[in-house]
Design brief:
Structural class: alpha/beta
Helix content: 25-40%
Radius of gyration: 18 Å
Shape: globular
Oligomer: single chain
Largest sheet: 6 strands, mixed
């Protein structure tokens, strides 16, 4: 079942243009949003959350247009980005308490579960965390209110290989519980480990969108790895 529909999304900046981006996300599936740095992944995600105002396009969640239903929709989704700056000198437990007050679906059991899983100390402040632990704290906030959809901008950025594997395994667990996960990355191995669907963005345009196996069948040349396929498609797009 489609729970997100993005149609004709456009956003123009002086040096960059997001052009006619359209796709759908389904419940119980993990969609990897792949593209090089600067391809427009963050602009797309911020437009989906009304953190950036697109020039045109339609965005719907759970059958509802984002416009006019933003508060209701955002209670049902979780969002995490490595660029969030929390109060640097407030303790994690204090920030969590503030976040908890915004969600009537907050799940204290889930919060404690992920706090332990991510080995986060509630007594520490964001300024005391490594970059990788800051990513985990962002995810803790996003995962603790039973979101039906998780939108994650570069969630594995800054994580060591062991933590990255733990996170990707967690995605698979959340998928089994029916959640949809949409995560941007420029790391092809992330897709290989957990993505059901691949959305490939290059220079502000969707170049390909398919299930992972279909993506390989449609776009890979003989003997190519998924990474080699995406690199070749990126280069051909740059030459076009």
């Amino acid at each position: 079942m489609s729970i997100v529909s993005v149609k004709g999304l456009c956003k123009t900046y002086p040096a960059f243009r997001l052009q006619d981006v359209s796709f759908e996300l389904e419940a119980g599936r993990i969609t990897g949003f792949i593209g090089r740095n600067g391809a427009g992944k963050t602009t797309t995600i911020k437009s989906m959350l009304n953190l950036v105002h697109p020039d045109s396009g339609e965005i719907r969640y759970f059958g509802l247009p984002l416009a006019g239903n933003e508060a209701e929709i955002k209670k049902r989704i979780g969002y995490s980005t490595g660029t969030v700056s929390w109060y640097p000198k407030k303790k994690i437990r204090e920030i969590a308490a503030i976040t908890r007050s915004f969600y009537d679906t907050w799940d204290e059991h889930a919060y404690r579960k992920y706090l332990k899983l991510f080995a986060l100390d509630e007594g520490k402040t964001p300024s005391e965390l490594s970059e990788g632990m800051k990513v985990k704290f962002n995810l803790l906030q996003a995962l603790s209110h039973k979101g039906e959809l998780l939108i994650l901008d570069e969630p594995t950025s800054g994580l060591d290989p062991f933590s990255r594997d733990e996170l990707l395994e967690l995605f698979t667990e959340l998928k089994r519980d029916g959640a949809a996960i949409f995560f941007s990355t420029h790391i092809v191995s992330d897709l290989e480990k957990c993505a059901d669907d691949i959305l490939f963005l290059s220079a502000g345009r969707i170049r390909a969108s398919a299930g992972r196996e279909d993506f390989i069948r449609q776009y890979a040349e003989t003997g190519e790895t998924l990474e080699e396929t995406i690199l070749r498609m990126e280069r051909s797009g740059a030459d076009a």
